[in-house]
Amino acid sequence: MDVTAPAHRLSAAVSTASRLLPARTGLRLRADAAGLTIAGSDSDLAVRLTCPATSHTDGSVVVPAAPLVETLKVLDAELVRLVVEGSRLALRLDNARFALPLLPETSAVTDALAKVSEVDGAAFASALRIVAGTAAKDDPLPLFTGVRVQSSGAELTLTASDRYRMAVARLPLRTAGDLDVLVPASLLTEAARAASGVVGLHTGPGRFGVSWAGGLVATAVLDAGFLSEESIPSGAVDTTVSLSADALAAAVRRVGVYAEDRRVLTLEVGDAQVRLASARQDTGEAEETLKADVSGGRTSPSFQARYLLDALGAFAGERVVLSIQPGMRACVLRAAEVGEVALTYYLMPMLPR
């Protein structure tokens, strides 16, 4: 194999593949007339990315990912030439040479997945950043570490929850299709971050994949189980509050400084206003009042400040509507004006101190 590629483009592709794949997975580089393909796989995951390149001699090799990633990151050159030299892959510059050991050849990524539909990549990534943020990072039940990806007709629904909160985003599909899978949240977020333009959604037996111009990521799916918006009662709303999400978030940050270790603060709803209050025995107490549009009775739910900030961050720059239910039922947050992505955020209240 002998190929010349743009150093920064190759570095970006190799770094993305390395982040998606498990540690110590080798990367398979293949050069041909179409350019350079970077691929890797294990029993659960397959990644394939492309990089523009000029192939002088077609061929493929497998090299360790980590040293390739680190070497490309620090190169200060426009082009890099990759040449097989015996049992090494040499990275050549005008004034330098780096050589990586070749690993045993692996089979190419051959996941045969059927494309179900397509979605706008920017809207997909934006929705995933919010929804995947509510998934648990580590949980004995895989159900809570995934994002449920569902489509019915021309609408795509993304759902995730860590038991204390749930986010549901709906966005339009470019073509109608049926899909219902639970995908690891961290992997799906990373794949969406790398994607651009139109993103294809694919399925196969026990697998799910996303594709875009120059990339494909396919993974084994989790058990979708009962992760569903319908599992959260939301029909007992007795108070609604509408105000600036940014203003409320700023007040939460200030008042939250005085909260106890659990960082729980109280949202007291009054006539045309909300009052945030918290107290800490060793540092004192704080309260702040904001003007708001209020409908319904007075109520005083308590929330963990961090979770409330995460929820409000999903509506940054917008006016948010809080639909509050009595007792320990979830508070439902939605944007006052729905855009391309329709987001619903469920936040469980906390017992006050």
Describe the structure concisely.
InterPro entries: DNA_clamp_sf (IPR046938), DNA_polIII_beta (IPR001001), DNA_polIII_beta_C (IPR022635), DNA_polIII_beta_cen (IPR022637), DNA_polIII_beta_N (IPR022634). With 353 residues, the protein is of the alpha+beta class.
Summarize the structure in words.
The protein has 353 residues and is an alpha+beta fold. It has three domains: 2-101, Roll (DNA Polymerase III, Chain A, domain 2); 114-231, Roll (DNA Polymerase III, Chain A, domain 2); 239-347, Roll (DNA Polymerase III, Chain A, domain 2). Helix content is 18%, strand content 45%. It is built from six helices and 26 strands. The protein has a nine-stranded antiparallel sheet with strand order 14-11-12-13-26-25-24-18-22. It has an eight-stranded antiparallel sheet with strand order 6-2-3-4-17-16-15-10. Helix 3 (121-131) packs antiparallel against helix 4. The protein is elongated, with a radius of gyration of 25 Å. The mean pLDDT is 91. Belongs to the beta sliding clamp family.
